[in-house]
Every structure is written in structure tokens, then in C-alpha cells.
Amino acid sequence: MQAFDFDLFVIGAGSGGVRLARMSAAKGARVAVAEDRYLGGTCVNVGCVPKKLFVYASHIREDLEDGEGFGWQHSGSLNFDWASLVNNKNTEIQRLNGIYKKLLESSGATIINGRARIIDQHTVEVNGQSYRSAKIAIATGSWPFIPDFEGNEHAITSNEFFFLETLPKRAVVLGGGYIAVEMAGIMAGLGVDTTLVYRGEQLLRGFDQELRLFVKDEIEKKGVNLLFEDNISAITRIDNDQLNVKLESGGTIEAGMVLAATGRKPHTQDLGLENIDIDYDRSGNIKVNEHYETAQKGVYALGDLIGGMQLTPVALAEGMYLAQHLFGDTPPQTVDYENIATAVFCQPNIGTVGLTEEQASERFSKLRVYTSSFKPMKHTMTGRNERSFMKLVVDDASDRVVGAHMVGPEAGEIIQGIAIAIKAGATKAHFDQTIGIHPTAAEEFVTMREVRD
Ligand code: FAD
After folding, report:
1. pLDDT at 453 over 70
2. For helices 15-26 and 312-327, what crossing angle results, to 10°?
3. 445: which of 46, 60, 127, 291 is 20 to 30 A away, CA to CA?
């Protein structure tokens, strides 16, 4: 018998790594988890959490303006202090870091602060010290990627945005995915003159086409300038505060900041993966089998760096599965990647679950599609020109609702409930038999009767 320091060595204390480490330790395994930056990983420190806090901040100006329609008056000018927002956010995140530390320690896992490097299938080195472990799990997440163009070193990513010392007056966001539209929405809401530049012809590739068109109009109404089928060709620094952004179309924009939200790559650099057997897919994601085991026996990988839907709840589910698979008494429930609901916190929000109309039409011979677009009740009093959109995609043969999509306030909160129904196999008849909650926007989902032409 070989002597190991640990039963499991987890590299990376983000969403997936923390869940795996503490669930495994709670099952009696001797677990170490190495982290070189921040406990809680991307989600807690530079992802979901600070993003959502900033989304709240950016919506408050509208809320105050909307108050006037309900009789509220605010005298004097409204001032926003970016430094207070960043400081308060940092304080909250430090609190969360502390909670993650406590959760790990109380489960019995050993936290090792530092960058981990794999030496061989049983050995990990951190800060010059080697640890031997029966099994190793790689949960190092993903890292923002900035495309190659002249002056790209002047562009920042979401990682830096959350810690900016000052908010620019004008900004360019490069990209058309969910992080790009969320960041553009945050900045526009905080009063930054924001231009989003995207090489594609429409935002949010992979989302339902009709929803993409709808949300584009809403984002424009919020004041974000959208430039499609264009790209940045060069950035030059004018002075400390100003950049000159050259576009492929020939135009230029002077801005205080360029934020590249141009995708993320698996965070696998300098991990020592060349010392073991690892297979990669074409995008550089680590390939794993159904138990999240890599080509190297006893070495596992999970979360963002295996590709798929790069979301915190997905990484958590994979961590739970692996802990149960490695150390549980009974076989784990397989992670079901079908019908994973997700939200985009652009403004207004998007919530979506299941198939887009385009995907459903490839899978089923006949569809029924129900849509509704309306002014939210609140805005009948505020006068704000904002609309909501809802859509159900139904397989005609089985009557099953195979996709639900929404743009509107709290879309994520609403779609989370719909996702349970869809997971349970709800039919359109079930939706129709459900009595709505009045007056809500959500009741629209159970009153849609008109099939769209
Ligand atoms: P991570 O959480 O990234 O954790 C990886 C950890 O490994 C990091 O802490 C890193 O420091 C550490 N690490 C890396 N290399 C080493 C090493 N060699 N040694 C030691 N430690 C190492 N998801 C949602 O579900 N909802 C959202 O609203 C959402 N918003 C997002 C917004 C933004 C701006 C971003 C960037 C992401 C967002 N995500 C969101 C995605 C979510 O954050 C990720 O899917 C999730 O964090 C992935 O978890 P993970 O465990 O794979 O990796």
C-alpha cells in the first residue's frame, strides 16, 4: 500500500472545487484544496455575485425616476459614488470569502494557499512543497480571453472591471455574449455613455432568435449604442484617461475604457498537465468520461474547464456527483444537462429554459409557439417605454412544453419555477389548467392561448 497525504487533492476553490472538497471531506475523505487567488472562485469574486450587485446598483437611477409616476419626488441632483459601490461590494465579498473558508474548514478539508502544479498522477506541488494524493481533481475554471489586435493590452476584462478606481464617462464593450450585454447594461445604468461592438449580426448567439431581436431593442432603449458586424482593429492611448478605439468599419471612438468580453478559455496554463495524460477537445477543454475522470486514471476535472454550460450551478452539480461517486455509499444521480435554466442579467433580464424555437424545430416535426409582448403594469404609471416578452415552444404531438423564454423584470426568478414544470414534463394543457397569480407578469405564462402565426 502506498502512503498518501490525502485521499483527494482538489486544485481550485471555486464553485466546483469547494463543493467537491467539502462534500468529500464530509463523507470522511482526507481532502486538500489548493487556491491561489480567492476562495469561492470566479462566481463569488469576479462573476455572478459582484455582477448582480452592480446590476442592482445600475437599476436604481431608473427606480428613482420611476418613483415620480407614483408620487415620489426627490429634490436636488442625484449623485452616484462609484468608489462606495466598489468598497461595499468588496466588503460583502470578503464576508463571503470568510463563509467559504469556514465551510471548508468545518467539513474537515485542508486549505492550502498557493498555486498548484501537478507533478505526476499522485503528486501536486504548492509553494515548493509536494503532496501525495490517491486522487486529484482539477477545478481551475476558465479565464477571460482577449483577441489579438493592435493595442489590446489597453483593454480590460470583467476581472478588472469590478475593481476599477474610477468609472469612465464613455466606454466600449467588445463582444456579444451574456457577459458583454450584462456589463454594457451595468455601465449604461450607471450613466456611462456605452457602445457595444460585436462582430456578429445579433447579440446572444445560441438564445432564441425572437428573444434576441426583442432584447436588442430593449437594450437600445436603455441607451446602449449597438454596433454589429464590426470589430476593434486597434486601440491607442491618448493620455492617462482616454483611449482611441479604431473600428474595422473605419470609425473611431474615444473612450475611457474598453472592456473585452470576448469569451473565456479553460484555465489550464502552468498546471503541469503535460506531466500526465490529458485529452482536450478542439476548444482546449479537458475531456472527461461520465464520472468526470480524465484520460489519466485517478485524475478528475469538472466545472468550466470541461466546457459545456459554464455556470455555477452546473459546476456545483458536478462537484456533488464526483464526491458521491468517489466517496459515497450509493451511486450518485447522474447530472442531467437537459433543460438547465439560465438568466442573463441584462436590462431587462432574460430567463430561459429548454429548447429555442430553432432547436425545437430540428427535433420535432410540428411545433406550436405561443408569444406575448406587453408593457409591465408598473410602467403604465411610470411612462417608461419598456416591454416584456414571453414565449412557450410546444411539441405539437406530445403537447409537451419544450422551451420557455422571457425578457422582463425578474425573468430569472420566474423562469426558475417554470423550469421545474418543464423538467417534470409539463404539457401545454398543464400550463392552461394552472390558475394564475394575479396581478403578476408570470401569470401570462399560464394564460397564453394564441398560437403565433
Ligand atoms: P472557478 O469558480 O473559476 O474556480 C476556479 C478556481 O481555481 C479559482 O478560484 C482560481 O483562482 C483557482 N485556480 C486556478 N488555477 C489554479 C492553480 N493552479 N492552483 C490553485 N488554484 C487555482 N454563472 C452563473 O451560474 N450565473 C451567473 O450569473 C454568472 N455570471 C458570471 C459573470 C461573469 C462576469 C463571469 C466571468 C462568470 C459568470 N458565471 C455565472 C460563470 C461562473 O462564475 C462559472 O461558471 C463558475 O465560477 C465555474 O466554476 P469552476 O469551479 O469551474 O471555476
Report:
1. no
2. 30
3. 60
State in Å: Cα 142 to ligand 1 middle.
6
Which of 33, 124, 140 should be mutated for ligand 1, with most atoms under 8 A from CB? 140
The helix, strand and coil proportions of the chain, stated in percent and rounded to the nearest 5, come to 35, 25, 40
Residues facing residue 176 across a β-bridge: none
Return all residues near 189 (Cβ < 8 A) that are at least 6 apart: 55, 57, 58, 59, 61, 62, 222, 347
| Cβ(48) – ligand 1 distance below 6 Å | yes
The response to whether residue 304 sits with its C-beta less than 6 Å from ligand 1 reads yes
Residue type, 331: P
162 residue type, one letter:
F
Start-to-end CA span in the chain (Å)? 69
pLDDT over 80 (residue 199): yes
Per-residue cell: 252: 473611431
Is 78's pLDDT higher than 90?
no
Name residues whose C-beta falls within 8 Å of residue 62's C-beta, 6 or more positions apart in sequence.
189, 384
> Across residues 120-127, what is the average pLDDT?
98
247-294, pLDDT tens digit by residue? Answer: 999 999 999 999 999 999 999 999 999 999 999 999 999 999 999 999
Q: Is the CB of 47 under 6 A from ligand 1?
A: yes
223: left (phi over 0), alpha (psi -120 to 50) or beta: left
H helix or E strand, kind and range, residue 318: helix 312-327
Pocket of ligand 1 contains residue 256 by CB under 6 Å: no
Q: What is the pLDDT of residue 88?
A: 98
438 carries an active-site annotation: yes
By the 8 A CB rule, do 383 and 355 touch?
no
pLDDT of amino acid 397: 97
Residue nearest to atom 37 of ligand 1 (CA): 47
Atom of ligand 1 nearest to the CA of 117: 18
d(CA 344, CA 340): 13
Instruction: Place 146 in a pLDDT band, splitting at 50, 70 and 90.
Output: very high
